[in-house]
Amino acid sequence: MYEEFWRESGDAAELVIPGWQTMSYFSDVTNVCWFLEPELDQQVRRLHRTVGNAAVDGYHVIVGTGSTQLFMAALYALSPDAAGDPSASSRQRPTTRSGNQSCLLGRQCFCCDLQSYPAVTDFLRSGLFRWAGDASSFEGDNYIELVCSPNNPDGAIREAVLASEPGAGGKTVHDFAYYWPQYTPITEKADHDIMLFTVSKSTGHAGTRIGWALVKDREVAKKMTKFVELNTIGVSKDSQLRAAKVLGAVSDGYEAKVVGAPRLFDFGRRKMVERWSMLRAAAAASGVFSLPEETSGFCNFTKETAATNPAFAWLRCDGEDVDDCASFLRSHKILTRSGAHFGADPRYVRVSMLDRDDAFDIFVRRLSSLH
Amino acid sequence: MYEEFWRESGDAAELVIPGWQTMSYFSDVTNVCWFLEPELDQQVRRLHRTVGNAAVDGYHVIVGTGSTQLFMAALYALSPDAAGDPSASSRQRPTTRSGNQSCLLGRQCFCCDLQSYPAVTDFLRSGLFRWAGDASSFEGDNYIELVCSPNNPDGAIREAVLASEPGAGGKTVHDFAYYWPQYTPITEKADHDIMLFTVSKSTGHAGTRIGWALVKDREVAKKMTKFVELNTIGVSKDSQLRAAKVLGAVSDGYEAKVVGAPRLFDFGRRKMVERWSMLRAAAAASGVFSLPEETSGFCNFTKETAATNPAFAWLRCDGEDVDDCASFLRSHKILTRSGAHFGADPRYVRVSMLDRDDAFDIFVRRLSSLH
Lengths: 371, 371
What we know:
The structure is a homodimer of 371-residue chains. The first copy, chain A, has 371 residues and is of the alpha/beta class. Chain A folds into two domains: 15-252, Type I PLP-dependent aspartate aminotransferase-like (Major domain) (Aspartate Aminotransferase, domain 2, 3-Layer(aba) Sandwich); 264-369, Aspartate Aminotransferase, domain 1. The first copy, chain A, is 36% helix and 16% strand. Chain A has helices spanning 2-8, 38-51, 66-78, 80-83, 86-97, 118-122, 199-202, 218-232, 237-252, 264-286, 325-330, 357-369; strands at residues 15-17, 60-65, 109-111, 130-131, 143-148, 171-175, 194-198, 210-215, 289-290, 296-299, 304-307, 312-317, 337-338, 348-352. In chain A, the strands form three sheets. The first copy, chain A, has a seven-stranded mixed β-sheet with strand order 2-8-7-6-5-3-4, sandwiched between helices. A four-stranded antiparallel β-sheet of chain A has the order 9-12-14-13. In chain A, strands 10-11 form a two-stranded antiparallel sheet. In chain A, helix 6 (118-122) links the parallel strand 3 (109-111) and strand 4 (130-131). At the A-B interface, helix 1, strand 1, helix 3, helix 6 and helix 8 of A face helix 1, strand 1, helix 3, helix 6 and helix 8 of B.
C-alpha cells in the first residue's frame, strides 16, 4: 500500500551509499547500543516527538533486525537468568525443575493472547522462557506480559491485564507496531518500560528489517543490546541509514519549514478509511460476514476525532454451514490466516489491509460476491 | 583495511535505493530461501566460480544477517528435534533428561575448538543443542562439528577431526569466512554439506551484516530458512543489494572484458603480505614474541605458490615473567584478545590484522619497542 506513496515522494527518501561507507561493526561506542547509527537514533526521537505517540526523553533507543528480534531481546533481558553467570543458573536448575509446572523450570513465563508470537518464543526451546498462553487466564508472579496495542489481529486497543505489585516478578513489553495515526487515534503519549516499533508497519518498509525499542532502564537496554550482539553482531548499517532517511522524510512532511513535503500519515489515513469503508460495504453486501465495530477517539496528533482503521481485518464468517472460514475463503480464491493461528475460533480469519491497491480491490470484489 | 580499496574504487560499488524499492518481506517466493534477493544469489555464485574456492552447482544459497545467524541456523537445522512437531519432542524430554550428561538432554552436541562461538551457542540455553568443548576430546555420535578453516584465531588450515560413519549422527558445518585468496592459497574447490561465508571478511563490509551459506541438502536448506524466518523474518533487502553490488564489483575486477576494474584480492594480498612482514620483523626485533610459522601452498586462483596470511595473528609472549600476555600488552597500550577466550593458554593473544593502516602502524611500532 505504501509503495504508491513513496513512488510519488520522488527522491525525498532515496539513499545513496558509497562503496566505502559503513564498513565497521561499530556505530557509536559511547552509546549503550553501540551498533545504533546516531542518525537513526535522532530520526526515531524526532518522529516520536512529531507524532506524540511515545515518550523519548530519558529512554534508550535499541535498534533490531525488525521488531521480532527486539521482542526476543526483551524476553532475554527480562529473564532473571540471562543476567547472571551461566554456572549460577545451572546450579539453580535442579531445584526449580520440580516447581510449578505452569512455568517451565520455574523460569520467567511469557503471556499474551491472540498472538502469533508463540512460535518465535518457543522455537529454540530456551530454558530461559516459554510461551504460557492467554494472559487473562494466567496465575503467578513470574511472567512477562506482551501487550500489543492496537492488537494484532483484531485491532483492539489493549492494556496490560496482569496487574503486578511493584517489585514483584511481573513485567510487560508493549508492542506498538500499529500505534501510528493512520491506524488509530493517538490518544496518549505512551511511556511504558519497553516499547517496540518497526518501520515495517509505520512506513511500509518491511524489507528493510528495522525495528526499534524505547527502553527506560539502562540495565535492560544493555541486556537487549547484548542479545542482538550475540544473535547477529548488531544490525545492518545500510538498513539503519535507509530507515533514518525514510523516517526523516516522514517528519519533514509535518515540519512547518519544509514546504510541500509529502505527508505519510495523511496518505495512510485516507487509504485506510477508504479501504475500511469498501470492506464494510462488501461485508454488508454479502450478508454472511461480520467485522469488529468501528471505534473512534480524539487524536492528539491530527487534533480531530478519528476512527480506528486496523492494519488487519478480523473477519467472521457468519454462515451457519461454515466452520472454517479460511478454507471457505480459500475455495473462493481469497487467502487469509485462520483465527486458529491466533488461538481463536476458526470462524474468524485475519485479512491484511495493507496489500497493493489492485490486490485489495480484487479481494473486496470477491468477498462482496459471496453469500 | 579494506576501506582504502573501496575509496579508490570510486562508484563501482555505490548503491542507490529509491524510497519505494524493496519494501516487501519477500524476494522470490519460488526459492527455498524466499527472502534471498535473486541478484545476491547470482553474485554469490559468480564470485565462487571466479575464485574457485567453493562448489555452487547443486547448492542452495541461504542468506543470513551475518554468518553468526547462519551458524545458529545450521545448529537448528541439524538438531533432530527442530524438524518434528514440538509436542513429540517434549514427550521425549523426560526419558532423555537422565541420559548421558556430556550431551544435554540427550540432544545434539556441538563441538569445536579454539572458537569464540560458545557464547553464541549457549546464550538462550536451548534444549536443542549446547556447546561441548574441544572436538578432539569429544566422544559420542550425536554431534555437530564446526570446522573453521583457515581457523580463527590461529589461521591454521583445518579438517574435521571427528570421523563419523555415514548414516550416524555426526554432522559438520564448515566456516569458510577466511577462505579467500588474500588470506590463504585456494588449494581446492570445497564441496562440504554446509559452508558459511560472509562479506565482513571477504570484502570488509562488516557493517552490512550479510553472510551466506552454501547448502547441499534441500531439507537442511529449508530448516535454515525457517530459523532465519523465526529469528528475524528474513534479512535486510538493502543490505543484500549492497552485498550484491560489492561482490559484483569484486568479480568485475577479474573479468577479462571489464577493463581497469580494481582487483580486491590483489589489493588484499599485497596488504596482508606487507603487514605480516612488518609484524614478523617487529616480533623478531623485540625478541620476546613468537608467531606461528609461515605456511604456503599452490593457489589455484592466482596460479602461483602463496603464503598463508591470516586475518588474525596468534601471538605468544615468550617472556618468562609474563603469564598473561593480554594484560602485559594492555599495560603497553596494545589491545588484544586473550587466548583464554579461545580456550587456550593466556600467554597467547589474538591480534586483528585488518585494522586501518595508521592503527596497524602504531601497533607494530609499539610491539617492536617491547623487550
